[in-house]
Write a structure and sequence with these properties.
13 strands, single chain, 42% helix, D-Maltodextrin-Binding Protein, domain 2, 257 residues, alpha/beta
Length: 257
Amino acid sequence: MNWFKIVTAAALLQAAALLPAQAGENLNAIKSAGVLKIGTEGTYAPFTYHDASGKLVGFDVEIGEAVAQKLGVKAQFLEGKWDGLIAGLDANRYDTVINQVGITEARKQKYDFSEPYIASKAVLIVRADDDSIKGFADLKGKKAAQSLTSNFGKLATESGAELVGTDGFDQSIQLVLTKRADATVNDSLSFLDFKKHKPDANVKIAAEQENADYSGIIIRKNEPELLDAINKALAEIKADGTYQKIADTYFGTDVSK
């Protein structure tokens, strides 16, 4: 029995000793190749999309480029549909996915995330000249323009609003602007992007939920060296002003908190 325990303990120690070396192999390979392969959609503005010239641009594209630069390599973006994007990590198509990937408990069971670099909240959007709605409770009896199956629609319903069905954010905003709806409960980042492009639009945020949803850079598990390097890179671009410059370009404000 003692011999069995000794052999078992030795095997466990050997396995534990191998993990860091194996985990560090991908970071070493990335640096040797000089390329960080990043999975992204390329169809999800303002995070990752193609501009009029066809160039891949966006908030997450610039974040990926900045992180890669801090690692001493270049960013190589590999585009794919959202449904199979994260699964591409399992197939080793790329090293990471940078595409406003929400940090959830379910995903954390299978993958590792960087420290959060995007925070989004549910916000209550009304016309700028409408002072009758100051909080979610004021939605009772009001018309809210919503995607009917969204979490935002559920929140509006719970607040007592009558829903006016829409296909998404842009249509919801238009219904509010044209007074066919009194408000919309929607994503704070979508609102910031809208106001960045149309600063004179007659809409404002009347209230926001206290709790935020966070997004991070996602990688395969058991790559602690790569995870540490990415977190260090994110901290550095926050400290040197790179992150703020990118956020200002796309949202006009820091979107990490």
